[in-house]
Amino acid sequence: MPKLKTHSGTKNRVRITKNGKVLTGHAFGNHLLSKKSASRKRTFAVPSKVTGRSAKNIKLKLAA
């Protein structure tokens, strides 16, 4: 069976740590920010962990 190609969209949106955790950015942090609280906007800046089957699917897309 041939090697899997890396999924380009996933490659640009997701980062895998040295320990194998999958990190991705938060949604809702780009525009319409005036109505969102400062603490809520700060949480958008911190990457969120992806867990469960979603993380496994992402790793398959990255062929890692």
Show the helix and strand layout.
Layout: H1 8-13, E1 14-16, E2 22-24, H2 38-45, E3 48-50, H3 52-61
Antiparallel strand pairs: 1-2, 2-3
Question: Can you give me a brief rundown of this structure?
Answer:
The chain is of the alpha+beta class and 64 residues long. It is 38% helix and 14% strand.
Task: Give your account of this protein's structure.
This protein has 64 residues and is α+β, with helices and mostly antiparallel strands. It has helices spanning 8-13, 38-45, 52-61, and strands spanning 14-16, 22-24, 48-50. The protein has one domain (8-28, 36-61). It has a 3-stranded antiparallel beta sheet. A hairpin with a 5-residue loop joins strand 1 (14-16) and strand 2 (22-24). The longest helix has 10 residues, at 52-61. The chain is elongated and about 50 Å long. The two termini are 16 Å apart. The mean pLDDT is 94.
- Topology, number of strands: 3
> Order of strands side by side in the largest beta sheet?
1-2-3
**What percent of the residues sit in helical stretches (DSSP H or I)?**
25-40%
Shape: elongated
Number of helices: 3
Class by alpha and beta content: alpha+beta
Uncertain segments of ≥5 residues (pLDDT<50)?
Answer: none
The overall number of domains is 1
Average pLDDT reading: 94
Give the topology string: H per helix, E per strand: HEEHEH
Largest sheet: 3 strands, antiparallel
Approximately what portion of the residues adopt beta-strand conformation?
A: 5-15%
The N- to C-terminal Cα distance equals 16 Å
Radius of gyration: 15 Å
